[in-house]
Design goal:
The chain is α/β, with parallel strands linked by helices. It is 29% helix and 25% strand. It folds into three domains: 2-101, Cobalt-precorrin-4 Transmethylase, domain 1; 105-206, Tetrapyrrole methylase, C-terminal domain (Methyltransferase, Cobalt-precorrin-4 Transmethylase, Domain 2), CATH 3.30.950.10; 218-397, Vaccinia Virus protein VP39 (Rossmann fold), CATH 3.40.50.
């Protein structure tokens, strides 16, 4: 099967080169969005068939299978988060001939006379926040964003301000390529939260290079009842992240997050991670919210309640699990974790040796590993200043 995929802008009178005009004139089956049809209808041959691209896409592709050749109109560059990628995914054996136009972010950069070779691209069109959050955490100085009706410029500005990324300038382009309706606006984020922009639109965010903290001092966190000694100390925290092998992991579960220090440090140092945090104490919810905003760590999902009773079926399976608190139910928690842990996953916890602690977490950890058939790695023992010794314990599945 053969597809001709033709990129167009929002211009009310599209310009097509002679080669494309010839393909259109000889075509019989055409496809695109409703907006595309309004733009190209005057160019379509009499008696031709139009297939609307609407969800569910499976039904659209079932119609395509009835034909040998389909001419598809798409926005901008069809390979730039565009429909040509969908064709390649759903029909990998199909032949595709492309005639791209400028994509919307290119057009916006052109209007601003802004070089865009160094621009970080993020699509929020029908997609959630994680890749955008990652670009912020990594302090990308130039971020191009494709929007939708939910992820509007105002919503994006609100999220950035909520997490302290307030030093960016926002450039918004509306109806780019349409000389009658095109508009470009440059504003601060505070202004953007109060403005409404016509759709379709896209935006470019420009900021400055800024260093991320590496090892946040515990005194800077909002603390549970002001107890600084209850938080995982910065050096221990960083060694714990090292034990979790986070550079090559994808999903971290933090069980017993308290202030959220481990989740936040992990999110800042490894922003590619998907982080799920669990805590039984309701008062800790406000702490992780405040600390996430204070240190610019969006995208952490938290769950309040007993981990053993929390519905985890819909959550992504972890390949790294940190147990920061267990309330005497360590064996039960580890057994439940093991039921969802990926084959290459690991479990890490910190055990404090203290005369004030009557239950030996290290012993419980050893017993749980033996009962569950887990392989333990040699513990790392640390004494930090005048604090009690801490052992970083780690185990994996046995093969």
């Amino acid at each position: 099967m053969k597809f001709y995929v033709i990129g167009i802008s929002d211009a009310p009178r599209p310009f097509f080169p002679p080669e494309v005009i010839k393909i259109i004139c000889q075509g019989r089956i055409f496809s695109g969005g409703k907006r595309h049809y309004k733009l190209v209808a005057p160019y379509l041959p009499e008696g031709s068939t139009w297939i609307d691209i609407i969800t569910p896409l499976d039904a659209v592709f079932e119609q395509y299978h009835d034909h040998d050749e389909v001419i598809v109109f798409a926005s901008g560059d069809p390979l730039f988060f565009g429909f040509a990628n969908t064709i390649k995914r759903k029909m990998p054996d199909a032949e595709i001939v492309l005639f791209p136009s400028f994509n919307s972010l290119q057009l916006l950069a052109h209007r601003l006379v802004m070089p865009y070779h160094d621009m970080r691209i993020v699509s929020l069109t029908g997609r959630p926040w994680p890749e955008f959050d990652r670009a912020l955490i990594e302090r990308a100085v130039k971020i191009g964003v494709l929007t939708d009706h939910e992820h509007t410029p105002a919503a994006i500005a609100h999220r950035m301000l909520e997490y302290g990324y307030n030093d960016y300038t926002m450039h918004v382009g509306e109806h780019l390529g349409n000389p009658d309706e095109e508009r470009v606006t440059t504003c601060r984020l505070e202004e953007a939260t109060k403005l409404e922009f016509d759709y379709p639109n896209c935006l470019i965010l420009c900021g400055q290079t800024k260093l991320r903290p590496y090892g946040i001092p515990e005194r800077e966190f909002a603390l549970l009842d002001g107890r600084e000694k209850m938080i995982t100390k910065a050096p221990i925290r960083l060694l714990t992240l090292q034990a979790l092998e986070l550079p090559q992991k994808h999903v971290l579960w933090d069980i017993g997050f308290c202030t959220g220090s481990v989740s936040i440090e992990a999110r800042l140092q490894f922003p590619h991670l998907h982080v799920e945090a669990f805590e039984i104490r309701p008062e800790c919810e406000s702490l992780i919210q405040e600390n996430s905003r204070r240190f610019g760590a969006p995208g952490i999902n938290w769950h309040i309640g007993n981990f053993l009773e929390t519905d985890i079926d819909a959550l992504p399976r972890p390949d790294a699990v940190f147990i920061g608190g267990h309330g005497g139910q360590l064996k039960e928690i580890m057994a439940r974790v093991l039921s969802v842990l990926t084959d290459d996953g690991c479990i890490v916890m910190n055990s404090v040796t203290s005369p004030m602690v009557h239950t030996d977490s290290h012993q419980l950890f050893n017993e749980a590993c033996a009962e569950l058939g887990l392989t333990q790695e040699p513990p790392t023992r640390i004494i930090l200043n005048d604090n009690n010794p801490i052992e970083i314990l780690k185990c994996k599945k046995k093969f």
